[in-house]
């Protein structure tokens, strides 16, 4: 499942949330520290693990 990073504009803290794609489209998370709803998604690093067949 994807891990999404968010930044809270109220308390200025960064937090991560693990959501399925369906959950991500349905709801916007609130800050776990201050319960604020003014959050924005931060860009996150992405990497893929693949098996290389020789």
Can you give a write-up of this model?
The structure is a single chain. By secondary structure, the chain is α+β, with helices and mostly antiparallel strands. It has one domain. It has 1 helix and 3 strands; from the N terminus they run ββαβ. The protein has one helix at residues 21-26; strands at residues 3-8, 14-18, 39-41. A 3-stranded antiparallel β-sheet has the order 2-1-3, with no helix packed on it. The longest helix is centred in the middle third of the chain and has 6 residues, at 21-26. It is elongated, with a radius of gyration of 14 Å.
Short description:
The chain is α+β, with helices and mostly antiparallel strands and 54 residues long. The chain has one helix spanning 21-26, and strands at residues 3-8, 14-18, 39-41. The chain is built from one helix and three strands, in the order E-E-H-E.
List the helices and strands and how they pair.
Layout: E1 3-8, E2 14-18, H1 21-26, E3 39-41
Antiparallel strand pairs: 1-2, 1-3
Features:
54 residues, alpha+beta
**Strand order in the largest sheet:** 2-1-3
Number of domains: 1
Radius of gyration: 14 Å
Q: What is the global morphology?
A: elongated
Q: What share of residues are in beta strands?
A: 25-35%
Mean pLDDT: 84
- Please tally the β strands and state the result: 3
Termini, distance in Å?
A: 29 Å
Helix-residue proportion = 10-25%
Give the helix/strand class: alpha+beta
Order of helices and strands: EEHE
Enumerate how many helices there are, as a single number. Answer: 1
Q: Any low-confidence stretches, pLDDT <50, length ≥5?
A: none
């Amino acid at each position: 499942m994807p891990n999404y990073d968010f930044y809270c504009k109220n308390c200025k803290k960064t937090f991560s949330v693990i959501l399925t794609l369906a959950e991500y489209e349905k709801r916007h998370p609130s800050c776990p520290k201050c319960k604020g709803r003014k959050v924005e998604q931060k860009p996150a690093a992405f990497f893929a693990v693949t098996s290389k067949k020789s």
